[in-house]
Amino acid sequence: MKTKISINKNIVFIGLPGCGKTAIGKEVSKRLSLPFCDIDTYIEKEEGKLIKEIFLQGEDYFRRLESQAIEEISKNYPSIISTGGGSIKIHSNMEALQKNAVIIFINRPVEHIIQDVDISARPLLAEGSAKLYELYIERYPLYKKYCDIEVFNDTDFNEVVDKVMQFIFARF
Description:
The chain is an alpha/beta fold. The chain has one domain (10-171): Rossmann fold (3-Layer(aba) Sandwich), CATH 3.40.50. The protein has helices spanning 21-32, 39-47, 51-55, 59-73, 91-98, 110-116, 129-146, 157-171, and strands spanning 10-14, 36-38, 80-82, 101-107, 149-152. The two termini are 18 Å apart.
């Protein structure tokens, strides 16, 4: 169902790797007829390499590329943006996004992520599922700090998207 409302800001999704930011973002993009951008995909296209290959040059290198991408993409509004799970670790990233965005934290139970996602394909999760719990403990306060709303991704996909859409309609 496509819906037309007047949106003058970006809608940004934050959360752990595998929480559903990209899938939910794509569906919201489709329903609102707005462009969608996944920051990791953008970086891969710009660099001509996969994220896991970029990480071979170190996480700091990747975070610099991520910050540049966020700075560029955040200026293209209105659009739907899916960030990398660790983008919230750099305050300037969140400042750039907050300038013209509504930020939605997709909070999905770690157990669900472990069950559904090939964590070995994610550079920071290659160490195993314990790393995901570590990231959750480290990042949860930041997700809460920067979000305008928290949406739990613990039910049916369409129900979660409907919750997000309800928030957007209430906000705009």
